[in-house]
Amino acid sequence: MKYDFSAIESKWQNYWEENETFKASEDRSGKKFYALVEFPYPSGHGMHVGHIKAYSGLEVVSRKRRLEGYNVLFPIGFDAYGLPTENTAIKTGVHPRQVTDENIAKFTNQLKRVGFSFDWSRVVDTTDENYYKWTQWIFLKMFENGLVFRDKTMVNYCPSCKVVLSNEDSQGGKCDICHSDIVQKTKEVWYLRITEYADKLLQGLEEVDYLPNVKLQQQNWIGRSTGAFVDFTVKENGEKLRIYTTRPDTLYGVTFMVIAPEHPIIEKYRSVIKNIAELDAYKAECAKKSEFERTQLVKDKTGVRIDGLTGINPITGKEIPIYISDYVMMGYGTGAIMAVPAHDTRDYDFAKKFGIDIIEVIKGGDISKEAYTGDGEMVNSGELNGISNKKEAIEKMLGILEKLGCGEKGVQYKMKDWAFNRQRYWGEPIPIVHCPDCGMVAVPYDELPLRLPAVEHFEPGTDGESPLAKIASFVNCKCPKCGRDAKRETDTMPQWAGSSWYFLRYCDPHNDSEFASQEALKYWLPVDWYNGGMEHVTRHMIYSRFWHKFLYDLGLVPTSEPYAKRTAQGLILGPDGEKMSKSRGNVVDPNDVVDAYGADVLRVYVLFMGDYEQAAPWSENSVKGCKRFLDRLWALQDMLTDGEEYSDKLRTLMHKTIKKVSEDIEALKFNTAIAAMMTLMNEIYAAGSINKAELRDLLIILNPFAPHITSEMYQINFGGYIHEQKWATYDEALCVDASVEIVAQVNGKVKCKLNVPADIDQSEAVALAKQDPKVAEAIEGKNIVKEIYVKGRLVNIVAR
Ligand code: ANZ
Ligand code: ZN
């Protein structure tokens, strides 16, 4: 009987679908497990093998949990608003709604062909009005609670996509979507006050089980720094120029100041600054560069001294020059710094270039060569001399500053408020009305969803204006407060909006009166295990933790953190070891693999190809190896014998394998779990037969990986359904191979007896013997001439 994978796989997929086998139960009395994977963006390219790997990890865990008796919620949905779809729509003239529906259908079909055990009754689509109604609702709650505001600012603007981008979406000075260069532009934009949650987002990390690297990235992203604000006086006009420093201990070493080119003090004193034209020209140059270019790419420091403004160091009373330079950002601290060239590398480079004094205030380095950024004893620092720089000097200086009334402790965050808008069509409309009398007014909750109007022309306006602005029937409305003529906001929300709360909707996806019922949320939250890509651990995870914490503060969700545990899978590289990409032509289509080898092979392979958390290249040969493994599994049926208990030959290995697979799945070590089952398979072939008890448990532990073939083999040989069975158990005591007692000798004299595994090899046996104190003593200081191991009997070490 040959294994016909395509017939068997569709048979089981149909069965699971018709019987809703993997539907999470509404009976909330049992123990639950909520496994979450990052829902895909349904792009026109269809699914990538990377998606398959990303979903296969928790797929295996979910299937195991069901066999362990848990009520498992393993949902899927579509994060479907966003630019690629809109850009396709603009190019092809097909409406984004239609493009999205087609892409979702394609993704659904592909996911089902791989046999994922998702609960298909809970699919969410962020572009569905029954979903985005609640995205708008949460936004309005934030508006009501003062977490939404509008502000004019310099924004990253993509001239090609014609949209304003967050810093995160324009890393490296390139648009995240079309990769063209971004430019700086002033614009009035919407913000969410995420900085208000900075401390909560940091503290929350102590309660959760995230990969260390994930935690670190979030901490760096939030970037909490403690230091001081210090007021320097401007000699010519008495103006207070406030700086932010993490190093008030170095105040005696300040020899100049630097302010951002956009700092408002320049405008304020235009008329008294003598070289204003030169400053203006420098500022114009800087406006062309993104923050990334200004901070990361520059090798050579540039800047211009302000002629007409001089700073006074509040501690020393010394006069110091003030420069503008692009290495100081307006958006961080106060946009002005005190420069300490002896102990800061950037300041050092700048001072060298402009010939400014360098004064050492911390001992330990050689400032004639480079800045000394380490710790040490304070020098040239008046009352601080002789104490250590860090805590002591910082504390003391803070006291002095406070006494003088020219400074105070301060905290700064790298994280900025979240620019929350796009001037594009395919997004959730922001439910705000602008009234000439009342200002910004929320759309009443009972008018939600504020529907995205159906239009024929969804191209963006020329200056980044939203296409919605052109639709008079949408724009013109009555003010909900005073009833007079008003205009609707025409910006839409950024793509990150819908994914900021989708894990909540999964708990109760069809609820019309709440985003999810309290009972459902209480049962399912927190997400027990969230797995996804490393690229989403800052933006998406921080945004969604922020929304969740906000809802928690309103008493609308029961847990302070949404995700109890977070892991991340590694990328699948092309066969050439490079990142898979259309342009390189090294993309593997999961459909092709399913067609040629079957879904089970694809699933086993993506988990076998390497450490789950590391990147690994695709290998067609290894895919074939996985196919052989499953073919040999099928062929076991030809050597099946009766037997209710494990045979003597395989007993230990069965227990060991069940233990290894059980533990490895929990540790995401799928590759070694599969390798253990392959070893077991080899031993079965070596033994020449397998009995029913052994086959049954092998099928069960392999089932999460290869559910189709194992379901079929189970039905054929045992009757009934494997998904209704229990996870295989092992006996710890039976996992160890039989042990034997051996003696350890030195130069033929018995020193001790040792209990060792029966299959121990020479080097292990000798190593164990050497650990014995008597043996160690006997060979100490001697040359080992020979080591002998007589299997199961003795170790002899010859030493002189
Ligand atoms: C004096 C000093 C001496 C500094 C020293 C550092 C070392 P973090 O830790 O990232 O918060 N800084 C402040 N505002 C800035 C801005 N808008 N643009 C660029 N640099 C700015 O860094 C804070 C330090 O970065 C501050 O401490 C300031 O330089 C600089 F030996 O002040 B420091
Ligand atoms: Zn009004």
Tell me what the structure shows.
With 800 residues, this protein is α/β, with parallel strands linked by helices. It has 4 domains: 5-137 and 496-573, 3-Layer(aba) Sandwich (Rossmann fold); 224-413, Isoleucyl-tRNA Synthetase, domain 2 (Alpha-Beta Complex), CATH 3.90.740; 619-734, Orthogonal Bundle (Isoleucyl-tRNA Synthetase, Domain 1); 737-799, Ubiquitin-like (UB roll) (Roll). Helix content is 36%, strand content 19%. The chain has 26 helices and 30 strands. The strands form 8 sheets. Strands 9, 10, 11, 12, 13, 14 and 15 form a 7-stranded mixed sheet that branches. Strands 2-1-21-22-8 form a 5-stranded parallel sheet. Strands 6-5-7-16 form a 4-stranded antiparallel sheet. A hairpin with a 6-residue loop joins strand 19 (476-478) and strand 20. Helix 1 (5-19) packs across helix 23, helix 2 packs across helix 18 and helix 22 (692-702) runs antiparallel to helix 23. The two termini are 65 Å apart. The mean pLDDT is 93. Residues 225, 244-247, 250, 328-329, 332-333, 335, 337-338, 340, 343-344, 412 line the site of ligand ANZ.
Topology:
Blueprint: H1 5-19, E1 32-37, H2 49-67, E2 71-73, E3 77-78, H3 83-92, H4 96-113, E4 124-125, H5 129-144, E5 148-158, E6 163-165, E7 183-192, H6 198-204, E8 209-210, H7 212-222, E9 224-234, E10 240-245, E11 256-259, H8 264-268, H9 276-287, H10 291-297, E12 304-312, E13 319-324, E14 336-339, H11 345-354, H12 389-404, E15 407-413, E16 418-419, E17 432-435, E18 439-442, H13 472-475, E19 476-478, E20 485-488, H14 502-505, H15 518-524, E21 529-532, H16 539-553, E22 565-568, E23 572-573, H17 590-597, H18 599-608, E24 616-617, H19 620-635, E25 640-641, H20 651-666, H21 670-687, E26 690-691, H22 692-702, H23 707-718, H24 732-735, E27 739-746, E28 749-757, H25 762-771, H26 773-779, E29 784-790, E30 794-799
Parallel strand pairs: 1-2, 1-21, 3-4, 8-22, 11-13, 21-22, 23-24, 25-26, 27-30
Antiparallel strand pairs: 5-6, 5-7, 7-16, 9-10, 9-12, 9-15, 11-14, 12-13, 17-18, 17-20, 19-20, 27-28, 29-30
The structure holds ligand ANZ and zinc ion.
